[in-house]
Amino acid sequence: MNKTRVNETVMQKAIRASADGKRVCDICKELNIHRNTFYLWKKKYQKIREDGRRRLDELEAENVRLRQRNSALEMNNRAIVDLLLS
């Protein structure tokens, strides 16, 4: 198999095909890549996916904290306005 540069789209297509149940040897033949190359891609994208998931979890937790803080500030603001208007 020749050494060629493969773009990200082809890598993602290979990983998706594997996730959909297609055999690795069939994917490699179709894309003219070595099995080791496929497994390197898979390892790389698995790490990216895990990092992305971790970041998403962090952002969701931050969102919850900010919503709670916003709610508390709104209640304080309402209390101050009510106090000033009375």
From TrEMBL:
It comes from Parapedobacter indicus. Keywords: Coiled coil. Pfam families: HTH_Tnp_1. Residues 42-76 form a coiled coil. The keyword Zinc does not apply. GO terms for biological process: DNA transposition. Gene3D superfamilies: Homeodomain-like. GO terms for molecular function: DNA binding; transposase activity. This is Putative transposase.
